[in-house]
Design goal:
eight-stranded mixed β-sheet; globular; single chain; six-stranded mixed β-sheet; alpha/beta; binds flavin-adenine dinucleotide
Length: 400
């Protein structure tokens, strides 16, 4: 038997870190190259659905995340002004029973730290910003800003929305600004006062053109997080995010329910992020290079499934390596794309339209998905999947 190919994962975000952990579980030869010198606990929360928890089970961090996160019994959608319930989607025990794992909300930094801690420090190379990648046919050479180069047999581009590896495959092209900003703030849970409703564990407040998603990010429910979607026509793509303020939030959410006002009053620090997307890519791999996550299908975060798709991608890629053999990388990549393109594009599309769980609907196709047991489709299905969905033309949601 020949030596196990050297697999380089570029980018140690949620997608790259999870993929590296899964590759290591299969005994494969992995090295992770990350541009950052290290990671800190950034001010943001994240939803982690049962579709992801099943993958975390395999990595061995499901119990630890369950202990850290908040477990909402329902996802509520509420009217921006009256607070009336527009949708009530069962999660909690229902999710465990029907989707095979829990649904939780957690601090993104805590989640990321669990994945990074699952990787031995010997596989991690920090401070390695990839500038150029050369597929020479029998080997790939990666060049970094520190002047060093490294070789690998397979390179997985998990390097986010401005992926250097996507650029090598498809040429330079900036992502599209989606016309919306997301304000993000994590802060200690405020007291409930007269005129307010008690805080739901997980709620999205909706008006016709904007929203605010709110949930706890710890099991103790002592920290709350909100993330918005607010239309803003122009954004300079040189800035990924900027500082925002309570004043800006008050202006954006003028006249909204007292509970929303209380959240704004309790805000300690708030940032605003540009929401970026791309149309589905015409190819996900070539030769020894393959993409996953935001490098491949960046999307608006309105289904709270972007990282979930990155992690599912990684798990499917590893499954395809097992299926056809890691030496057979081109076949594995074709199988991988055939089994991911349609689902990722569907999630991209719904995220773009921002209709997810706005009214009562059955989310089982999303939360019930099990990447390890879903029947595999033939790579010939790829063309069909890609022709199905384009995200540029929004469908109009019903007025509220
Ligand atoms: P990233 O997280 O972007 O990671 C890429 C990594 O690559 C980074 O560590 C970066 O430093 C590194 N890198 C980049 N370039 C290079 C280079 N040249 N060389 C080396 N390293 C490089 N998703 C959910 O599932 N649930 C949610 O609730 C949710 N909420 C969101 C809220 C907001 C406001 C936003 C903006 C996104 C949200 N998402 C959510 C989406 C999610 O954040 C992304 O889809 C996810 O982070 C993508 O993971 P990734 O690993 O593909 O890329």
């Amino acid at each position: 038997m020949s030596k196990s190919p050297r697999i380089a994962v570029v980018g140690a975000g949620l997608g790259g870190a999870a993929t590296a952990a899964l590759l290591l579980k299969e005994g494969l030869n992995v090295r992770v190259y990350e541009q950052a010198p290290g990671f800190s606990r950034l001010g943001a929360g994240i939803h982690v659905g049962p579709n992801v928890m099943k993958i975390l089970r395999r990595i061995g961090v499901e119990d630890a995340l369950n202990a850290q996160g908040s477990h909402p019994d329902y996802w509520y959608s509420r009217h921006w002004e009256t607070g009336d319930v527009l949708a009530q989607i069962p999660l909690g025990d229902y999710a465990v029973k029907h989707y095979g794992a829990s649904y939780l909300t957690v601090h993104r930094g805590d989640f990321h730290a669990l994945l990074i801690d699952a990787l031995p420090s010997s596989v991690m190379a920090y401070g390695k910003q990839l500038t150029r990648v050369e597929d020479r046919g029998n080997v790939v050479v990666m060049h970094f800003t520190d002047g060093t180069s490294e070789e690998a047999d397979i390179v997985i581009g998990a390097d986010g929305v401005n992926s250097c590896i996507r650029e090598e495959l498809l040429g330079p092209e900036l992502p599209k600004y989606a016309g919306y900003l997301a304000h993000r703030a994590v802060f200690p849970t405020p007291q409930v006062k007269a005129g307010m409703m008690p805080f739901d564990d997980c709620v999205k407040w909706w008006s016709d053109d904007r929203h605010m998603m709110v949930y706890f990010v710890t099991s103790k429910r002592d920290e709350l997080y909100y993330v918005t979607g607010v239309p803003v026509e122009h954004w300079d793509l040189n800035d990924r995010w900027l500082a925002s303020s309570q004043e800006e939030m008050r202006e954006a959410f003028q006249g909204w329910h007292p509970t929303v006002q209380a959240l704004i009053d309790a805000t300690v620090e708030v940032t605003k992020w540009s929401l970026l997307e791309r149309d589905p890519l015409p190819l996900w791999s070539r030769g020894r290079l393959v993409l996953l996550g935001d490098a491949c299908h960046p999307m608006k975060p309105h289904m709270a499934q972007g990282a979930a798709m990155a992690i599912e991608d990684g798990a499917m890629l590893v499954r395809c390596f097992k299926e056809v053999g890691v030496h057979n990388h081109e076949l594995a990549f074709a199988l991988y794309e055939a089994n991911r393109a349609e689902r990722a594009s569907k999630v991209q599309r719904i995220s773009h339209d921002n209709t997810w769980l706005r009214t009562n609907e059955d989310p089982s196709w999303c939360f019930g998905y099990d990447v390890f047991s879903v029947p595999l489709v033939d790579p010939a299905a790829k063309a069909v999947a890609l022709s199905l969905i384009h995200i540029s033309e929004p469908t109009r949601p019903e007025r509220i």
